[in-house]
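ugh ok fine here u go
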Amino acid sequence: MLLSKSAYARRLGVSRQTVYGWIARGEIVISSDQVDVEASHAKQHSGGAGDHQNEMTWAQAAAWVWEHDGGKALPADMDDGQRIEGAAAELGFDVRHEPDKQLLIVLRLDEETHSFYGKDRAADALRFLRSELAYVATMHPDTLGDWNKTGLMSLCLLDGEKL
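structure:
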């Protein structure tokens, strides 16, 4: 059975952003721009679901991020680009880098696009993603989602970091 992303989210009782996060992490199967329900279910129950599954509401996820602001460092194998990709994926966004133009694009296909230019593009993108987390947490505080610890850590401010 194929369902639209919105219908799949309604069926599972999660937000559309949660579904986009699963898509970004390769946790569900897409066919013809729709979710293949049976294949996704099989994939999720075969151990291929990644390093996650911390079920929290959006308000709890936002609180977790704010509480962990000021951490010492990112994981050793994560650079600024990977940090933005992890943070974006956690909120259901895709990222495109165009280093020759000093351009970073954060987008949801067929929905919205946000472009960040210049040397501060990563910080600007992180500021946007944190504001998106705060917005959804305010508008839909009790909506459950599955959260990836690495993705949530990517949204946290580092020790001494200011946006």
